[in-house]
Automatic annotation (TrEMBL):
Pfam families named among the record's database cross-references: LigD_Prim-Pol
Protein name: Non-homologous end-joining DNA ligase
InterPro entries in the record: LigD_pol_dom, MtLigD_Pol-like, NHEJ_LigD
Entries under NCBIfam families matching the protein: ligD_pol (TIGR02778)
The keyword Transport is annotated on this UniProt entry: no
Species this protein is from: Streptomyces camelliae
Entry GO MF terms: DNA ligase (ATP) activity
Keywords: Ligase
EC annotation from Swiss-Prot or TrEMBL: 6.5.1.1
DNA ligase D polymerase domain boundaries: 28-279
Protein's UniProt keywords contain Ligase: yes
Length: 293
């Protein structure tokens, strides 16, 4: 029998809580749900008003992985959904607005991925993102070097960037922007990626071509496109361990000398939040949003 719990007046079914999702650590589905519930105070503001793509891994990261962009079958009627534009026609997607919806989504065993715009205005980007992806033997150490260059270059345009781990191999840089379409934001991001490649030719490539990437950092600017989504701050990732896409300080980026320094698992987050608070909180303040040059 599937247990039912009540969350803020909503009845939420929770299933297979004893299932081990990450065999290397014994991390269970119950622990995954607990992680999302206890982290809701910082996670929910970054999900709110954004259509969500779910990367689901119901049997753990070593099982089947699949993206769910449309509203999943069986979604409770009280879960907020929104119609979002797509080139092939509008689609309806989930918008995680409250704790009950977060618990329901966590029970599906998910990573959370969001667009760089809010559902109220899909024609206006309010986020700029760079995904720094290292091509072996490059690691997050080289990503940090590129991130520091991008930070200074963005600052020259009046844009403040905030770093987080990808929760896999690299880094993400996020910034709050205003007044630009996703197309314009993508153009700007691409121009900076090309500039980074010229400035750091031994380190950076701005094209996705795999043959160009060994030993370099791919500065992926394309996730600014209206249709693309990026791992949300604080989401768990479908990796061999319960790694988190964790906000980090610029001091941690500057001091990174080995890949393990910027690897954070679910159990690391409570003490980090107690010490740092939400390092991505400035992204939620409209006053911090900068116009693109």
């Amino acid at each position: 029998m599937t247990p039912i719990t009540e969350v803020e007046g909503r009845r939420v079914a929770l299933s297979n809580l004893e299932k081990v999702l990450y065999p290397q650590t014994g991390f269970t589905k119950a622990e995954l749900v607990h992680y999302y519930v206890t982290g809701a105070g910082v996670l929910l503001p970054h999900l709110r008003d954004r259509a969500v793509s779910f990367l689901r891994y119901p049997d753990g990261p070593e099982g089947q992985l699949f993206f769910a962009k449309n509203v999943p079958p069986g979604t409770p009627e009280w879960v907020t959904t929104a119609e979002v534009p797509r080139s092939e026609g509008p689609a309806r997607m989930v918008v995680v607005q409250d704790l009950a919806s977060l618990v329901w989504a966590a029970n599906l065993v998910t990573e959370f991925h969001t667009h760089q715009w809010r559902v109220q205005d899909p024609e206006r980007a309010d986020r700029l993102v760079f995904d720094l992806d290292p091509g072996p033997p490059a690691t997050v150490v080289q990503c940090c070097e590129v991130a520091l260059w991008l930070r200074e270059r963005l600052a020259a345009d009046g844009i403040e960037a905030y770093p987080k781990t990808a929760g896999s191999k690299g880094l993400h840089l996020l910034a709050a922007v205003r007044g630009a379409s996703p197309e314009r934001t993508s153009e700007y991001a691409k121009a900076l990626a090309v500039e980074a490649e010229r400035a750091l030719p031994r380190l950076v490539v701005h094209r996705m071509t795999k043959s160009l990437r060994p030993g370099k950092v791919f500065v992926d600017w394309s996730q600014n496109a209206a249709r693309k989504t990026t791992a949300t701050p604080y989401t768990l990732r479908a990796r061999p361990y319960p790694y988190v896409s964790a906000p980090v300080t610029w001091e941690e980026v500057a001091d990174c000398r080995s890949a393990g320094q910027l690897e954070f698992q679910a159990g690391d987050m409570a003490p980090r939040l107690q010490h740092h608070g939400d390092l991505m909180a400035p992204l939620l303040d409209p006053e911090t949003a900068a116009p693109l040059p």
